[in-house]
Amino acid sequence: MVDDLARRLEEVRHHVEPGWDDARVVAALERFHAHSHSRRRRRVQVTSAMVVAAAAALALFVVGWIRVADDGAFGPQPRSIVSLPRHGQNLSRPASTLFFDDGSRATSLTEDSRLVATQVTSTEVRVRLERGAARFDVASRPERLFRVDAGDVSVLVLGTAFSVRRIGERSEVVVNRGRVRVSWTAGARVLSVGERGVFPPVETIRDESRPRSQPSEGDEARHVEPEIVSRRRGPARVRAQRPSAPSWRALAEEGRVDEAYAALEQAGGAASLRGLADALRAADVMRLSGHPAEAVDALEGAIAANPGDPRAAVASFTLGRVLLNQVGRPRAAASAFARARSLRPTGALAEDALAREVEALSRAGAASVARRRALEYLDRYPTGRRRRAVQRYGGVE
Amino acid sequence: MRLTQAEDERREGLREVPSVDDAFRSYAPYVAAIGLRILGRPDEVDDLVQDVFIEAHRGFSTIRDPDGVKRWLARVTVRVASRRLERRRRWRFVGLKSEFDYTTLPDGRASPETRALLARVYEALDSLPSKLRIAWTLRHVQGERLDAVALMCGCSLATAKRRIRAAHTAIREAVDG
């Protein structure tokens, strides 16, 4: 049925186009999130009363049980699901998860893991990983040292998240957030976010006088090279050792962001992400579950690792929004928007990014730069959609 | 060896069903295009895209084939657009007819003749049942194959052909007199 009308329509149908570009997609996605979030919040409100009641009853039961089990009042820190290691009492009892009152947490990653809190004082906490692997989320408390001992390796942290896995006599350390100082008998090394290392280094073990003819579990580990690797290869090694857990991606797709965030943390956090798309998804989970600072880490890492990916501009734009609206770092947000523009200089995303850069600079107090950017926007996009906001933030009304 | 492993992992990642967010980023323009061509009104497209992805969000976990996401979203779009068209018809029935100037539908590069043709076509489409309108629009404005039209409309190939034929006859009469 190809008649004259059909032929004419075939020639003109390309004129019926919605003209959706990156910026419009980003804006629509933002509205979609807002809508989903409000629906989720309503659903949560309906169920929260029941959950709170059940949780209160459970908490009362647990509190009573712990009081009876330990025959006394609570110590200041820490508390544990399995054991209650407190300063000077039961410190050698192993646990699968240790919770500390300042929010720090040590979580076993394998079933055979063995964690022991060996020292808990107001100035220092020491946890020994006797076997297996564990993840450590340490709250930032400059006045207190948090140290993890894994064989001959000691990891000193101040506000970070990282994982440690025993490999015979050596230990693998993966940093998910912040920085740690790893020390061993013959040296020390600082690891930053995304880095992984196996310690002590091979050379150190060889220097020791132990005869090589004696077979041990550690000999196998000596062939693990290189010592320091980027985040891309690290998580796969750790992931293979972990027990199966609910997929954070599946939970995120169902809109269960809080559970998705917990599962993501269990899976290794930002260090476990595979590519930019994964990072964008994880960043959504993080910011929607109330952890925007971690979303910033994930996005920054992903952009740095995938600068050539066409979605890097969208990731940088998202980073700017999180920094501006949720984290309250307008100057950093302005840099992120500028990077989004440099990654995709043409197209409407660049227009939106420039407009948001003006807003961020204005909120950062950089009035003169904001004004220059505003004039640049008005020059480039004289009929731009964000013209009014740009004029307002740039002070060129 | 490492490169091969990384490549395999990358391929494996690409074979995964995308998240709703990824799907939104990838397919929102496609959904918008189908929506605009069915509805004919640019001011309704944003809401339609939102509705499609809200509905898609509920059923997304059931998708197993990453290659099927686009077609599945197209079916959802057709369903949501159909509901909007039915609502329009009900408004017209109770006298709340909303007029629209379809000459504004084409983009800025369209000639006056093209604007006039598309306006006459969409005015004619407004008088058709939504099932006929959708099948014909998908075939002749969206340019889908017949089997794809049947799939998106959730009907048999024969039914799709019948709907397209009926709509085409009515539109040809309206356009060419």
Describe the protein in words.
The complex is a heterodimer of chains A (about 400) and B (about 180). Chain A has about 400 residues and is an alpha+beta fold. Chain A contains 14 helices and 14 strands. Chain A has helices at about 5-10, 20-70, 200-205, 215-220, 235-240, 250-255, 255-265, 275-290, 290-305, 310-325, 330-345, 350-365, 365-380, 385-395; strands spanning about 80, 95-100, 105-110, 115-120, 125-130, 135-140, 145-150, 155, 160-165, 170-175, 180-185, 185-190, 195-200, 230. Chain A has an eight-stranded antiparallel sheet. Chain A has a six-stranded mixed sheet with strand order 4-5-7-8-11-12, with no helix packed on it. In chain A, a hairpin with a 3-residue loop joins strand 4 (about 115-120) and strand 5. In chain A, helix 9 packs antiparallel against helix 10 and helix 12 packs parallel to helix 14. The model of chain A is unreliable at about 70-95 and about 205-245 (pLDDT under 50). Chain B is mainly α and about 180 residues long. Chain B has eight helices and no strands. Chain B has helices spanning about 1-15, 20-40, 45-60, 70-95, 110-125, 130-140, 145-155, 155-175. In chain B, helix 2 (about 20-40) crosses helix 4 (about 70-95), helix 6 (about 130-140) packs antiparallel against helix 7 and helix 6 (about 130-140) crosses helix 8. Classes of the chains: A alpha+beta (about 400), B mainly alpha (about 180). Chains A and B meet through helix 1, helix 2, helix 6 and helix 8 of A and helix 1, helix 2, helix 3, helix 5 and helix 8 of B.
First-to-last CA distance of chain A: 58 Å
- As a percent range, the share of helical residues of chain A equals 40-55%
The N- to C-terminal Cα distance of chain B equals: 69 Å
| Protein structure class of chain B | mainly alpha
Strand count, sense and barrel status of the largest sheet of chain A are: 8 strands, antiparallel
As residue ranges, the low-confidence spans of chain A are 68-93, 204-244
Average pLDDT of chain A, rounded to a whole number, is 73
Oligomer: heterodimer
